Amino acid sequence: MVRTQDGRRRLLTALLSLVIGVGGLLATSCVLSPSSGKDPIPPDGDIDRKTIENLITKWLPDAYSTMDSTAYADALDEAYIFELLEDEVDPGIPSSGWWERSEELAIAGSMFTGRYNPEGIKVDGIDLKLQLKTNPTVDNTVYPDRPDGEIWYKATAYVDLTVITTNPTASDGSGIVNYIVNSDQIFVCRPDPDADSLWVIRKQTDQKPIN
Question: How many structural domains are present in the chain?
Answer without folding.
Answer: 1
